[in-house]
Fold these 2 entries.
Entry 1:
Amino acid sequence: MTVATFEASAPFHIPRWLAPFVVLSFAYIAVPFIGTNYLFEAILLPFLALSLAGVGLNILTGYAGQVSLGSAAFLAVGAFAAYNFNLRIEGLPLIGSIILSGFVAAAIGIVFGLPSLRLKGFYLAVSTLAAQFFVQWALTKFSWFSNDSASGVIDAPSLSIAGIAFNGAVGRYIFSLTIVSLLTFFAYRLVSSQTGRNFIAVRDNETAARIIGVPVLKTKLIAFAISSFIIGVAGVLWAFTYLRTVEPAGFNLDRSFQILFIIILGGLASIRGAFFGAALLVVSPLILSRLGSFLFGDLFNSGVLDMSQRIVLGALIILFLILEPDGLVSLWDRIRKRSVARLNKRKHVGRAAQPTQ
Amino acid sequence: MHLFNQLKAAAVAASLVLSVALPAAHADEQYFPLQSYRVGPYAAGGTGFFGGFIDYLNLINTRDGGVNGVKLTWSEGETQYEVERGVEVYERLKNNPGVAAWNPLSVGIAYAMIDRITQDKVPLITINHGRTDSTDGRVFPYVFPLLLNPYSETSGIVNYIASKEGGLESLKGKKMVVLYHGSPYGKETIPIYELLAKKYGFELQQIEVPHPGNEQQAQWLTIRRAKPDYVVLRGWGVMNPVALKSAAKVGFPVDHIVGNVWSNSEEDAIPAGDAAKGYTAITTQASGAEYPVVKEIIKTLYDNGKGNLEDKNRIGSVYHNLGIVNGILNVEAIRIAQEKFGKRTLTGDEVRWGFEHLQLDPARVEALGAKGLFHSINVSWDNHEGNGYVTFQQWDGKKWNVVSDWIAPDWALLRPIIEKSAEAYAKEKGIKLRTSEDVVTATN
């Protein structure tokens, strides 16, 4: 696992707020105009939901060091809780059901976080599997959760907040983007707060953390609660803005692994890492699949192509982890550092080249 | 950094190539986007069904030069029966020109598409499966669970068991177990089995097999304890042979297991070996290659190396024939719509009109070379199923043999339940019920 480090400030430096500001203004202003329906429906909406889930898991696994294989369960809790709040509480605004569903996910997260007080590492990972299986079982077993729908599939309600409807691909994108931005900002503030430092202390050395007065048990449960809250909201986005229908089987163990891979590939203990990882895992299979069907579509049937894409994707991930074990985010940082260094050099050279009198 | 740059370059190149490589629009083509699945636990169903569907489209192109000169085109996107992939493929393929209809062959994907296709005004075909209440065309204008919706299937199976026991009255006091696949498809019939159990007075237990279903020891031990008179197998994919084998292991007699319409293929019976001998299953289309249309597909396509199935032994299998029947229904809907709107590329809404007038009587079915392959269909604007007939077939260890006549499910019993469910959906979604006047206007 990576250890958070503090960089020495470079002489030429980009203000901290600039990068998120540029990205967000691009995402809010430019993307809705240039994006196609396909971009929103098939790429950006799953990307946003999975990124947020990655942010949530990264708080738990990356920062607080508690490995979890139950992320999909919390996605499901969030999605089904929001659906039920929305359905059963008359007059509750949508944003209310989303927040409440986050709290439900947090509560379930605390329950399944209890074993972490005793278990560590692989043992904890296995015990979080219980969340995965239990939640899926409960949602399938009790048809009340899906409002007794015959097939256990729920339909997403139409999205509107304070009378403004967020329907259509762009509307849902803006809705999702706003929630993801707010929660990401919260997570960003959190990890640099005292609680965030407690997380890191518990992760790096529990005994040492206890000695310096970090309440280890409380910290672990807080990490589970906050992480599950964020993942639960991500589940709402997945169900309401992306698929617009949900069945419990959609939140299976594969999805939990996918989210874990997102933070491993993107970079553990990094908020940005979740976005990099999600981008890689959402976009690269699509590129491979479209490239494959474009190049070889006439020669092989789609099954053969799909199998070979899996092999290629797997190989790419292995190769990538060998070359860049700290994840995409460290790759990005190195690129940034080098270009800043180059800029500084140029500035320096420019100054040196000025004629002196 | 090196790697990243290369990846980035490849990605940019790929997206550039792909953005210019979209198929160009041709005047007279009708396009079928196929959300197929050829890998994963349900590949047997996917390859057979989409193989048959493509074979029939190909036959129409090769033999007739298209439908009245309008050529049929298609392309495939792999879904692995997963909803997310199905949605992605939908978004990817929907902008191709001249989309006729969607045929995802997955209840989960179909559910996710209902809002989308209704907005895009393109028909969604869920042959022999799907959301039962989409039969009600007043609420679901663009969804067609053709031939046999899940409730009709249930009614057909219960009627068949009753006929074996000597009439519906003798069901009283009998015990039945439904072993269903843990998916939206599998759960679709839970309420209707309960309703029929109450109506006819048989005892009922419904047991779920989690997806994909390759482990059923616990379920069959429960069944052995329950000692039912019949087990209805509502399976899919790998779950079916495993069920038959586990039944043999716990000693449940195979001739008292009745398979539903997605547990009725060669791919379900062959892997179970001797355990499948005597197994009976419902079907809407007979298997075998002796039907004229299948023979023509062999002659025109497979003899020239143009067939879609890799394994020629699967020609005429249940899934392949279902794909062919699905092809017939899609093509005939286009043909019927062309008579009204002109012999050209139709819009999705015009094809919808065609499906709503898809009436093929046994004589027309015979003219299409499919006599005996399937019975007939009679779709109308408010009945999107079209009252398909069912028959039962028994596995003799090598092939399926038909063991019943064409049986009609109890549509009159089911219709009020379907209407009630559809009306509840309409209320939840704020949909205005269509009337027959809304049907004629095909605009977009």
Note: Strands of chain A lie at 154-155, 160-161, 164-165, 245-246.
Entry 2:
Amino acid sequence: MHAAETATDRRRAGPLRSLGWLLGLLTLVALGAMTLSVSVGSSALSLVDVLATLSGQGSELQRTLIFELRLPRTLSAFATGGLLAVAGALMQVLLRNPLADPYVLGLSGGAATGALLAMLAGLGGVLVSGSAFAGAFLATLLVFGLAHGSGSWTPSRLLLTGVVVASGWGAIITLMLAVSPAERLPGMLYWLMGDLSYARTPWPALGLLLGVSLLLLPLGRSLNVLARGPLQAAALGVAVRPLEWSIYLIASLLTALAVTSAGSIGFVGLVVPHMLRLLLGNDQRLILPACALSGGILLVLADTLARTLIAPEQLPVGVITALLGVPTFLYLLHRSR
Amino acid sequence: MSRLDVRDLLIDVPGRSSGRALNFSLLPGQVWGVLGPNGAGKTTLLHTLAGLRAPRGGEVLLDEQPLERLNRRQIAQRLGLVFQERQDGFPATVLETALIGRHPFLPAWQMEGAADLLAAEQALARLDVAHLSARLVSTLSGGERQRVAIATVLTQAPALWLADEPTNHLDLHHQVAVLELLAAQASAGRAVFMCLHDLNLAARWCDQILLLYPDGEACWGPVASMLQPAALERLYGQRLLTSEIDGSPVFIPAR
Amino acid sequence: MDLSFARLRRRVGLAAALLGLAPALLAAPICVIDDAQREVCLQAPAQRIASLSPGATELVFAAGGGERVVAVVAFSDYPPAARALPSVGSHSRLDLERLLSLQPDLAIVWGSGNSAEQIDALEDFGVPVFYLEPENPEGIAQAIERLARLSDSQAVGRQAAEHFRRGMAELAEQYRDAEPVTVFYQVWNKPLMTVNDAHLIGQVIRLCGGRNVFAELPRQIPRIDIEAVLAANPQAILAGGMGEENRYWLTEWRAYPGLQAVQQDNLFFIPPSLVQRPTPRLLEGSRLLCESLETARARR
């Protein structure tokens, strides 16, 4: 009871101020996580070496390790995690279902189909990413078109369409795995599990994450109202349909870019928003920026583990997020009854 | 102050012929009561008046402008709706819930300020739920939730109140308190349009009555002319005993 | 349990066959030990061989039994004659119906590649099964000799095995005292994968006087990251590739000019089919690999 009182008092102090504190704190944690991620890897560098290299000294090898390998990968992990968590939070508001995740509407299936097709054709690098993005885009349009179809639109209809389309993608993926030559399989499986070694440059993802976070801030209160149901939201002045389609498209764009740069990494988009809601309440103006930072932090840490647990051998980061995510999520679910 | 004019309105109840076209005006100071059996279309009428549902014919004018030419925000600044059913998919505290009543008035970038907070707190106090501010709405009783919903619209402070069964789930004392509140809103120059099930509450607090029959037939007018036992018995298909207490008619179902 | 039951049934089957084919008893059965350490006996040399991995097909052809192969699996592309043979699906999912309709009297299986259930089923249908899994160069030579016995082509097989053995021995002799060169062998690029010392390629690297920088990793084909390669800083990088003449994996390493192998231009393409399958072509692959390392040695 006492804790609830202080929580209210904090809210009375104005959401703006708690937003400032929260983002400041999370930014510090994010910087810490990134420093850790840049400092460890399969070759040992001391913190002193890392700081020296960051300030422009250090050997050529150290500079290569830090500036060409670890830093871009860390930034990619951060951006990808942020994108997934924000996309998850948006999908949960859109479907009025706290258990939705960015992949629930079959977008990752479309992206995976695109990526695997490219791999099956023996293409590499940029073409795999491009094909994954095209697949994600196609999946979005497909679900959008089918759910929109006759005009009547409800979250459950969208969810059903998405789930059915997703299982269709699943079948296509299984088919492709079944007919692939053995030597292509490891690459495909790693892609499906999510793997940041595919990330090329972090800048598009980081740019999108920052842009969307800023764009969503003014929409935050409308999303709060939308979470109470479309009729209530409309009665309080929200243009429900345009808002719903915009957040669907934004969430799809975020997921598509995340999947394109790192494969389908599970659980970040489900667990992070859910955990933040349990800790911070349900104000999207707090949740969305906090998701961007916390999702990033989680994936940076998970990727650090993936790179170092059995170094120099590597684990796919999707396995780490799932191994961390499943018990955490079950615990939270159990505790919240 | 605002007014709502209903012209040749045919509400769209699926699977029913259109019935009588509605023509009336909701004017400042008035308290309208809509009476009718289950399924007569009371909620549909309310949603149509709020522009949440397209009519089958006719139009609704808010301050002389057709609703469809106004955007939701312009409507919400003048017209508030107490819903009968509410979605609580996501947890929210009582105070947060009341505060969303300020949504139509705040620019996108602006956070709720001290004045908004004060309005919400006063509304919660007026509905006797201020002590529940920090509680999650999902943990409240039905009657408490009903009062939080009304407090949300009170925070919104619309010139036109549309209320769907505002006394649902409320104990006798709180039923009276809520109707007193709505009457006070009307005497302050606002207008109230509500669906009710209780004939006696309607007789006591409303000055205009609209009777909605299950076949789409309807009639409306001042309370004294509308609350005729014969018309009410036909409306509900139920024989009534009538008396008069304290200057108001009283109806009880006959056994 | 299941396996021994299947064996029992096979023996009963064999006994019945023995009674029925009394004249055939005049010839002693042909018995060899396979790579699962089981004794495989045939009453007569195999006439219809099902070769259920691309590597097995190469070995059977090398052993002189190529003309008796009636079924192969997908990607059996060497020798070219194998491409014309009927395929019975991929090695991991055999089309048993098709396979049985070809009436093989011997199946050469790949224990770690074929499905164990399908191998069991084959045995249940009475097809003798020979497990093939050569783990080192000597294993390849012996596999050729044993397959030659089963297909009654000992002369060809002995010659092929001796040629292979001699060639490998010559390489070993030639590079026995060569100065060690540190080597990174790239199996695949995304994800980046290499081999350890126990892998056949790892053995060839050692034979050629190379020192595999990832020799000590526990798994045969471990997945690593670029950082580990940079830290190990090998003197030579050898790579297979997706196609036979696809060298872009190597050019990607030029992005790291700090690497010794890049500075000395020691980036070598080794056609994967010559070293990644345990077949007699490994001799040619080993020569190429040894020459590459010798080039690297000379550039120091």
Note: Residues 91 and 119 of chain B are 22 Å apart (CA to CA).
